[in-house]
Records
---
Amino acid sequence: MSPPRSSGHAKLRDRDVSSLPEDRRLVLHVVFDTNTIVSALLFASGGLAWLRQHWREGGSIPLVSRATAAELTRVLSYPKFRLSPADRIELLGDYLPYCETIKLLEKCLIVCRDTNDQPFLDLARSGNADLLVTGDQDLLALTGQTSFLIETPNAYRQRTCGTEPAL
């Protein structure tokens, strides 16, 4: 069972980060859904491109499971993206090394209407995530029903950077 969260706010967890500057010692553990990651990786001038630098610099610890990594790999191979196998490996290399892999998954007690989204809820539960970042309406509809926050990429940017995306 996950520890309770107070006031509906994500708790920040202490990690062994003593070598980091004081303002970086508390890091959010975040599950990013596939569309969020793909947008960050593929669209260098897009609204989510900032996430690449964010996770590279340790602004969050993305969580990944076998199921969510497989989903990301599958989506990157869609013909519409026209990515070669080498391109896909390079893009995965810009994300997966920054992730914490969660191996044993617990089922989230909250069930998503779209069964394809359930692995993200299960990962967030199993990894004791602070947040699930998504633009998916089926997941956003579950806001307030989980031990972790569920919010849009724009809300996450406001939370972590204090800035709104440029329009």
---
Amino acid sequence: MVGKYRLGIQIVILIICSFIGFKLSHFLNQNYQVSVVVGESMAPSFSSGNIVVLKKNVEKISLDLGDVIVFRREFSDKKRFTKRIVGIPGTKVERSDSYIKVGGRTYDLSFQRGRLDVKDVLYEIIPEASYFVVGDNLNKSYDSRHFQYDRSIGRNYIYFREIDGVVSFILWPFWKVGWKEMDRL
């Protein structure tokens, strides 16, 4: 009698744990995603091979300067980029043939000289639901500074709909494991 009672309790516990596990798995799949950082464009914050957890379903209002995001460009099927947001909707962008100035910070474009024939300084405002992004390692980053030169893009910023998520947790390497507090600009 005691054996049947224990077996019944174990079955009930197994069913409850399975249900909780299923619900937890469903919640995590809906709200989080694992991603691998590729390339050195975000060094020293992130290195190639770092494994991070992205918070998905991020509302536009929660994205801010300094957030590190993972996104896919509309022209790129599978390639994912990891970059830092340095310009949010409403931010003024100033361009010339030698620099781009976003929100008071100037980025050198001397490596692109001659590709953009700008006689005067051009000004634009980052549109709603769009973001200007750069890598922390400016010398090795393909980012918003370059996008204007790519004929398939034709714009400096990325759209909100291209964003997969915001980096919120580092899984690997083990000495960096933990919630990521991003350095704000």
---
Amino acid sequence: MSADKKHSSSFRGFIQWLDTWLAEIAGWLVIIMMLTISYDVFMRYAFGAPTKWSLEINEYLLLAVVYLSGAWALPAGGHVRVDIVYKHFSPTNQARIEIFLCILSIMFTAVLTWEGILFVHDGIVTWARSETYLEILQWPIRLLTVIGSGFLCLEFVFRLFRYIRVIQGKEESTGQEGGL
């Protein structure tokens, strides 16, 4: 079995494939947002008849973009890092800092995932709807929190194990990893 097939068959490879797939969906959602906003602007200024649905739809699409792409952005280096002091540490000390930050991030994203699950459950039980023109069911929107924070939590776990291997000398730190 080739190295690529072995990696793609692993749990981590599968999760990273899902992260990429979700990020691609988020990219397409941005295009949909652009089209719906452009349509709303056109209708407003050309005919004096703005849409009633565009703002609400785009608020939900923006949530989807953020939550669906967050886990992909972490290993891709898309999260913010302030490394004015950090870059002066040795790779081992950088790995120790990363381990600490990963543990904090895992705790935060795990709690966010759990609370999101409870929030989705509440939305299903109460059949909650938005109080706006479209009266959109809320549980599918709330499910974005669970998906996004759950996958981000997994990426932090993968990152934690990677930095543990760096400290053990089993892997080298490139110094190019994405920020927290």
